Every structure is written in structure tokens, then in C-alpha cells.
Amino acid sequence: MCHLLLLLPMLGLPVFWLWPIEVAAPVYAVIFAVAVWTYGLALRSAHRPVETGREAILHGRGRVVNAGGRRLTVQLGAELWNAESRDALRAGDEIRVLGVDGLVLNVARLAEARDGSKEVAHGA
Predict the structure, then answer these.
(1) Is residue 31 exposed (0-12), middle (13-18) or buried (19+ Cβ within 10 Å)?
(2) What are the extents of the domains in the chain?
(3) Which pTM was predicted?
(4) Are 112 and 118 a contacting pair, CB within 8 Å?
(5) Average of pLDDT values for 91-117?
């Protein structure tokens, strides 16, 4: 289907064989405009950020719901995930996802910077 959309202007060329130029030119202009509009939609959708999968989770921010040693339960958006951390975390701490290993997230605590922004703290 994608290839047919790319060929749409070429597929419209036979209108010049079938009709006089006064009729074929406006029809072809409409076909060409639809093709350009379709290409614009395709390019816009190709540049949208990832909204699903591993890439969407990576570098996401959340909070610790349940802490029990190195094994944690964290909330990312509306989802609960199992997680591991090198940091000693407590329930309510804000975290950032550093990596994904299967269904277990590798997280680190977010620390307040002096300017008020949040950055990842790498403690032991």
C-alpha cells in the first residue's frame, strides 16, 4: 500500500491520454495535491516520539511504591513495575529508569540539584 501511495502521481498520468488537456490538468492537479498531503502526513508520523515499548520506558520518571532491599516496586505513569537499584530507596522516592532487563527496570534516585532541577544521583 505504501508503494502505491508513492506512485500516486505516476498512476495519475494516464488521465492525459484519456481526456483533453483542459480536463486532465485539473484532475491531475488534485491527484498531485492528495499525494503531497499524504507524503506530509507520512513524514510527520515518522518524526513522532516513541510512545510504546522499551524506548518509551527508558529514561522515564516515576516513584517507588514498595521497597524491600534491592527489589522494588515502582510506578511509571499508571503502571507498576518490578525494579532494582544500587541506591537505597524508600517508598515515595522519585526515580529515573536507567535500563530495562526483561520485565525488571534498573532505576536510580532523582536528586534535587541546586538550581531546583532534578538529576540522577548515583550513590551506593
Answers:
(1) middle
(2) 2-46, 54-120
(3) 0.58
(4) yes
(5) 83
